[in-house]
Specification:
Helix content is 15%, strand content 32%. With 206 residues, it is an alpha+beta fold. The N terminus is likely disordered.
Protein backbone atom coordinates (compact mmCIF):
# COMPACT_ATOMS: atom_id res chain seq x y z
CA UNK A 1 0.00 0.00 0.00
CA UNK A 2 2.79 2.38 0.89
CA UNK A 3 4.56 1.58 -2.40
CA UNK A 4 1.49 2.52 -4.47
CA UNK A 5 1.07 5.84 -2.65
CA UNK A 6 4.72 6.75 -3.25
CA UNK A 7 4.46 6.00 -6.98
CA UNK A 8 1.31 8.12 -7.23
CA UNK A 9 2.97 11.08 -5.55
CA UNK A 10 5.98 10.89 -7.87
CA UNK A 11 3.71 10.84 -10.92
CA UNK A 12 1.79 13.93 -9.73
CA UNK A 13 5.06 15.77 -9.11
CA UNK A 14 6.40 14.90 -12.58
CA UNK A 15 3.17 15.99 -14.24
CA UNK A 16 3.24 19.27 -12.34
CA UNK A 17 6.79 19.99 -13.47
CA UNK A 18 5.88 19.12 -17.04
CA UNK A 19 2.95 21.55 -17.08
CA UNK A 20 5.19 24.33 -15.76
CA UNK A 21 8.12 23.71 -18.09
CA UNK A 22 6.14 22.94 -21.27
CA UNK A 23 3.75 25.90 -21.49
CA UNK A 24 3.92 25.88 -25.29
CA UNK A 25 5.70 23.99 -28.04
CA UNK A 26 5.43 23.53 -31.77
CA UNK A 27 7.14 23.75 -35.12
CA UNK A 28 8.66 27.02 -36.27
CA UNK A 29 8.68 25.94 -39.91
CA UNK A 30 6.91 28.09 -42.44
CA UNK A 31 7.03 31.21 -40.29
CA UNK A 32 5.06 29.70 -37.43
CA UNK A 33 5.72 30.97 -33.89
CA UNK A 34 5.47 29.49 -30.45
CA UNK A 35 4.07 31.67 -27.67
CA UNK A 36 3.91 31.27 -23.94
CA UNK A 37 2.19 33.54 -21.44
CA UNK A 38 4.16 34.45 -18.32
CA UNK A 39 2.26 36.10 -15.51
CA UNK A 40 3.60 39.14 -13.67
CA UNK A 41 2.80 39.81 -10.02
CA UNK A 42 3.09 42.92 -7.85
CA UNK A 43 1.65 43.88 -4.50
CA UNK A 44 1.10 47.52 -3.54
CA UNK A 45 1.07 48.16 0.19
CA UNK A 46 -1.45 50.50 1.85
CA UNK A 47 -0.23 54.11 1.68
CA UNK A 48 -1.54 57.56 2.57
CA UNK A 49 -0.58 61.21 2.26
CA UNK A 50 -1.84 64.00 4.55
CA UNK A 51 -1.02 67.58 3.55
CA UNK A 52 -1.91 70.29 6.06
CA UNK A 53 -3.09 73.21 3.94
CA UNK A 54 -4.56 75.73 6.40
CA UNK A 55 -4.32 76.19 10.20
CA UNK A 56 -7.33 76.83 12.41
CA UNK A 57 -7.08 80.51 13.39
CA UNK A 58 -9.50 82.03 15.91
CA UNK A 59 -7.86 85.44 15.59
CA UNK A 60 -8.19 87.87 18.49
CA UNK A 61 -10.99 87.08 20.93
CA UNK A 62 -12.32 90.13 22.78
CA UNK A 63 -12.38 88.12 26.01
CA UNK A 64 -16.00 88.53 27.01
CA UNK A 65 -18.11 85.55 28.01
CA UNK A 66 -19.49 83.80 24.95
CA UNK A 67 -18.93 81.60 21.90
CA UNK A 68 -16.20 82.26 19.37
CA UNK A 69 -15.69 80.34 16.14
CA UNK A 70 -13.09 79.77 13.49
CA UNK A 71 -15.61 78.84 10.85
CA UNK A 72 -16.20 79.41 7.15
CA UNK A 73 -15.54 76.03 5.57
CA UNK A 74 -19.00 76.41 4.07
CA UNK A 75 -17.49 78.88 1.56
CA UNK A 76 -19.85 81.77 2.04
CA UNK A 77 -22.38 80.50 4.55
CA UNK A 78 -23.05 82.24 7.84
CA UNK A 79 -21.13 81.64 11.05
CA UNK A 80 -24.27 79.93 12.36
CA UNK A 81 -23.27 76.96 10.22
CA UNK A 82 -21.01 75.80 13.06
CA UNK A 83 -21.55 77.81 16.25
CA UNK A 84 -25.06 76.41 16.64
CA UNK A 85 -23.74 72.84 16.58
CA UNK A 86 -20.90 73.80 18.92
CA UNK A 87 -23.33 75.40 21.34
CA UNK A 88 -25.27 72.13 21.48
CA UNK A 89 -22.10 70.21 22.39
CA UNK A 90 -21.10 72.81 24.98
CA UNK A 91 -24.64 72.62 26.38
CA UNK A 92 -25.24 76.37 26.13
CA UNK A 93 -27.45 78.70 24.11
CA UNK A 94 -26.28 79.75 20.67
CA UNK A 95 -27.36 83.26 21.72
CA UNK A 96 -23.97 83.46 23.44
CA UNK A 97 -22.27 83.76 20.03
CA UNK A 98 -19.80 86.67 19.97
CA UNK A 99 -17.70 86.47 16.81
CA UNK A 100 -16.38 84.35 13.93
CA UNK A 101 -12.92 84.77 12.43
CA UNK A 102 -13.59 82.73 9.27
CA UNK A 103 -10.41 80.91 10.26
CA UNK A 104 -11.28 77.35 9.35
CA UNK A 105 -8.40 74.95 8.78
CA UNK A 106 -8.00 72.21 6.20
CA UNK A 107 -5.97 69.25 4.98
CA UNK A 108 -5.81 67.13 1.85
CA UNK A 109 -5.91 63.35 2.05
CA UNK A 110 -4.94 60.86 -0.64
CA UNK A 111 -4.90 57.11 -0.07
CA UNK A 112 -4.73 53.90 -2.07
CA UNK A 113 -7.10 52.02 0.22
CA UNK A 114 -10.02 52.53 2.57
CA UNK A 115 -8.82 54.09 5.83
CA UNK A 116 -9.98 55.45 9.15
CA UNK A 117 -9.29 59.12 9.90
CA UNK A 118 -9.05 60.27 13.50
CA UNK A 119 -8.64 63.70 15.07
CA UNK A 120 -7.20 64.67 18.44
CA UNK A 121 -6.13 67.89 20.15
CA UNK A 122 -3.13 68.54 22.38
CA UNK A 123 -4.15 71.43 24.65
CA UNK A 124 -0.71 71.99 26.13
CA UNK A 125 -0.34 75.76 26.15
CA UNK A 126 -3.97 76.27 25.17
CA UNK A 127 -6.85 78.17 26.79
CA UNK A 128 -8.68 76.67 29.78
CA UNK A 129 -11.95 77.54 28.03
CA UNK A 130 -13.83 74.59 26.49
CA UNK A 131 -12.78 74.16 22.88
CA UNK A 132 -14.12 72.10 19.98
CA UNK A 133 -12.86 71.12 16.55
CA UNK A 134 -14.81 69.22 13.89
CA UNK A 135 -13.76 67.71 10.56
CA UNK A 136 -16.14 67.93 7.61
CA UNK A 137 -15.80 66.78 4.01
CA UNK A 138 -15.65 69.31 1.21
CA UNK A 139 -19.14 69.56 -0.23
CA UNK A 140 -20.79 68.66 3.08
CA UNK A 141 -19.55 71.32 5.55
CA UNK A 142 -22.62 71.04 7.77
CA UNK A 143 -22.01 67.36 8.57
CA UNK A 144 -19.19 66.95 11.13
CA UNK A 145 -17.56 63.57 10.63
CA UNK A 146 -15.29 63.58 13.70
CA UNK A 147 -14.69 65.78 16.75
CA UNK A 148 -11.82 66.70 19.03
CA UNK A 149 -11.78 69.05 21.98
CA UNK A 150 -10.40 70.33 25.22
CA UNK A 151 -12.24 70.61 28.55
CA UNK A 152 -15.47 69.45 26.94
CA UNK A 153 -17.39 66.17 27.08
CA UNK A 154 -17.26 64.39 23.71
CA UNK A 155 -19.24 61.33 24.83
CA UNK A 156 -21.45 60.16 22.00
CA UNK A 157 -19.49 62.08 19.35
CA UNK A 158 -17.33 60.36 16.75
CA UNK A 159 -13.59 60.94 17.00
CA UNK A 160 -12.82 59.09 13.76
CA UNK A 161 -14.53 58.28 10.48
CA UNK A 162 -14.09 56.15 7.38
CA UNK A 163 -12.52 57.57 4.25
CA UNK A 164 -13.19 55.53 1.10
CA UNK A 165 -10.59 55.00 -1.60
CA UNK A 166 -11.29 56.98 -4.79
CA UNK A 167 -9.14 56.44 -7.86
CA UNK A 168 -6.93 59.42 -8.84
CA UNK A 169 -8.56 61.56 -6.18
CA UNK A 170 -7.31 63.92 -3.46
CA UNK A 171 -10.01 64.73 -0.89
CA UNK A 172 -10.05 68.00 1.01
CA UNK A 173 -11.39 68.11 4.57
CA UNK A 174 -12.10 71.27 6.53
CA UNK A 175 -11.73 71.82 10.26
CA UNK A 176 -14.01 74.27 12.07
CA UNK A 177 -13.33 75.37 15.63
CA UNK A 178 -15.27 76.87 18.54
CA UNK A 179 -14.25 78.26 21.94
CA UNK A 180 -16.62 78.93 24.83
CA UNK A 181 -15.22 81.50 27.27
CA UNK A 182 -17.13 80.88 30.50
CA UNK A 183 -15.61 83.69 32.57
CA UNK A 184 -13.57 86.77 31.69
CA UNK A 185 -10.90 85.67 34.15
CA UNK A 186 -10.77 82.09 32.83
CA UNK A 187 -7.36 82.77 31.26
CA UNK A 188 -4.88 85.60 30.91
CA UNK A 189 -4.83 87.90 27.89
CA UNK A 190 -1.97 86.45 25.82
CA UNK A 191 -1.23 84.32 22.76
CA UNK A 192 -2.18 80.63 22.85
CA UNK A 193 -1.28 77.73 20.61
CA UNK A 194 -2.46 74.11 20.52
CA UNK A 195 -1.91 71.19 18.18
CA UNK A 196 -4.53 69.33 16.15
CA UNK A 197 -3.40 65.88 15.01
CA UNK A 198 -5.03 63.98 12.15
CA UNK A 199 -4.25 60.25 12.17
CA UNK A 200 -4.82 57.84 9.29
CA UNK A 201 -4.93 54.09 9.90
CA UNK A 202 -6.25 50.90 8.34
CA UNK A 203 -9.75 49.86 9.44
CA UNK A 204 -9.86 47.26 12.18
CA UNK A 205 -10.46 43.79 10.74
CA UNK A 206 -14.04 42.70 11.23
Amino acid sequence: MKKHVSIALVMVFVLALSSMALAAEGSLAGGETVKADIKAYATVGPYASIVATKPVDFGTLVGKVGLYTANGFDHGGTSAEFYGRAADVFGVSSDLFVSNNDGWGSFNLETNTNVMVGISFDNTGWLDSPTLFAIAKEGAPDVPKAWAGSNVNLTGLATEFGHAFAKNSVQMYGIDGAIYIERISQQMAQNYEGLITVTVSLPTAQ
